[in-house]
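Quarterly update, task 2.4: zinc ion-bound model.
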Amino acid sequence: METAGSRSRIRQELADGRPYTVGEIAGATGLARSTVVQSLTVLEAGGTVRRHPPRPVGRGRPAHLWSIADAPGPLIVLVAAAHGTTVGVVRPDGKVLAARAAPAFDGDDTGRRASSVPELLDRVLADAAIGAGDIALAVVGLPGASGFSPRAASGPSTHLNQFRVWDGADPSVILRDRLTCPIHYENDANLAALGEVTHGAGRGLRAALYVSLAHGTGAGLVIDGRLHRGRSSLAGEIGHLHAEDDGRLCHCGARGCFWHRTSFPALLDDLARAHGRRFTSRDVADAAERDESDVVRSLHGLGYALGRRLADAVVFLDPEAIILDGGLGAASKGIATGVKQALQRYAPPLMARSCDVRSGLLGRHAALVGGASLARSEQLLPAP
Ligand SMILES: [Zn+2]
């Protein structure tokens, strides 16, 4: 039956601005086709949605397409962490119109330049030929606990203080100087997880675990198109699984966390020590591309150690797929091989077989695209 609730549910499904058929909307919302048709008719009369020319569907009659009447403006998505900042202008349907990354920080405070972030923002807006006033929403991705709240941040975000990004300046203050739109915060791995599940390697999956590796070992869990954040907003932080009783003290407050030894940055350190020269993630991706046996073997080893712990997660969560950070290029494939081997060794055979291990498809843009996915899944975009 057509109700305000069914109309709201349909508006949420159409929030990314893309056109969909009645069948697609019914499938995604779980509403009956007749309810979808009745709701769309009411929404069309109110000017909220519009009908597009039909497109052929299989052997059946061509189906009309429906979209939001005026798709909301693009989003600014900004991903900041100790390693640097990436800013993108992203359409609600996930298309990245422009993106720029700040030079990586040097690892000490002198390398952090707060002033570069406003510059980056201005340049990305110019690249996309879009004014700050056209931006509908800003999404900020950061490490640590998810700072997400359905209500936009109205002032400085206390959540961010501990990370001292941008010379201790709060991103919301810098963004407020330039944008008038609502600002939301989310964990960076969560954003990448949503991006890959909505528009990348996990399209169509109902339950997927995304593992971010480029700057540590983190994860995001997407179930039925939405993030599972947990009570402390830290669900899926596999980097903080306990590994060593007398290990290093971690910034999370615990000791001997898994990521200190099992992470991509730790592998870069190991390779540098073994070869007597510096290794960047680009070096490792290139070596993997050339199939250099020592590097490929070390990637398998990282994947196997990771997979040993992921096997436990597979038993708890039974996901359809584990999606590995696509930002590592060819290195991701070597890690995936190791993860698969470990799942076969340590997870129950039926579960290991049913959980696919694949590399992300969105590369370094996964979190930017995920900003648009967050806007849709949490209904953050204003209805027209
Ligand atoms: Zn920790």
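Highlight for this quarter: The pocket of zinc ion is lined by residues 240, 250, 252, 254, 257 (CB under 6 Å).
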